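The step that takes the researchers longest sounds almost clerical: writing a folded protein down as plain text. The outcome of that step, for a single protein, is printed below.
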Amino acid sequence: MLVTALEPRRKSMTAVYLDGEFAIQLDTMTLLENKIKVGREITDEQLHDLIKKSETSRAKEKALYLITYRDHSRKELENKIRRSYSSETAEEIADKMQELGLVNDEEYARKYADELLHKKHMSPKAIAYKLREKGIAPEIISLVTQDLDYDPLSEIREILERKYSAYATDEKVKRRAIAYLQRMGWNWSDIKSAINSD
């Protein structure tokens, strides 16, 4: 197949024409690195190799953009890349980001758990559930939730004062508060102690 035209497109892509017809859009940098120019002959095998390299390059750019924007767990990053690229490429790039130290599940889990505890006042049980949703390994979840430094009564009181300030005088508000606290994973004995401590 003969490369008959290369036309720049948006987002650092180039339209590749083979034998006079549009064939595919590839990453411009991949084409430059592989010295693909008009007039060059390429085989099917070379084209498939270019497609793979282009996809890997684009997926890497996406991963870097995502982790620059905010921290991600390895699994979360892989899932987001998979929306635009093959499962194989998504897995490869997520592994690469982990190898480079740009993705660290334990570090991510500790930050996320701390945020859920101190900003949303979730119980360790609810935090463990949220970490599982992010694809964090059970052994990391166990380690992180064991290391949380908190007082259940003060966390529960914080929720009561912030969201349900009328709980002491209004039975309806009190019931809603109890239901919410149970959904947040707090156990009944701690909820009861916090409510009755006033």
Notes: The CA atoms of residues 165 and 173 lie 8 Å apart.
